[in-house]
Amino acid sequence: MKSFIFLIGLCSLIYVSSARLAGGWSDVENVNSPEIQKYARMATKNVTDLMHYPFHLKMMNITKAEKQVVSGMNYKMEVQIGPTECRRNGNYTDQEIEDCPLQKCDNPLVCTFVVWVQPWRTNPVQSTRSTCALGDTFC
């Protein structure tokens, strides 16, 4: 009887420890969803605006995305970014930059973005954190 109670207790402990932590990060099922793509492009544009690089930067690939329920939703994305052939001193629309070809890039920036989405607010999408790792060389 004691071993049966011990076994039930052990199974309960394993079940509880395998459950997701409320408020913790969980994987986004489809990193290529239009919503995730939109947030990654927005965060990439913010990085481009902050950098003093002569070419516009563009998202190449989203390697990972997670979400977290907060007052709204946080999305954390790991994104590879490379330079386009469009110079920053040109007057390009967002769509023209999106259509601009990427330069050959073997060593893109790897950036982690956190975007906070609160659909009920006047400014519903905010980029709250951006960090980029440069490696040895950039492209």
From TrEMBL:
Annotated Gene3D superfamilies: 3.10.450.10
Keyword Signal: yes
Membrane-spanning ranges: none
PROSITE patterns for this protein: CYSTATIN
GO annotations of cellular component type: cytoplasm; extracellular space; vesicle
GO molecular function: cysteine-type endopeptidase inhibitor activity
Signal peptide (residue range): 1-19
Keyword terms: Protease inhibitor, Signal, Thiol protease inhibitor
CDD domains for the chain: CY
Residue span(s) of domain Cystatin: 20-133
Name of the protein described by the UniProt record: Cystatin-1
Gene name per UniProt: NCL1_41911
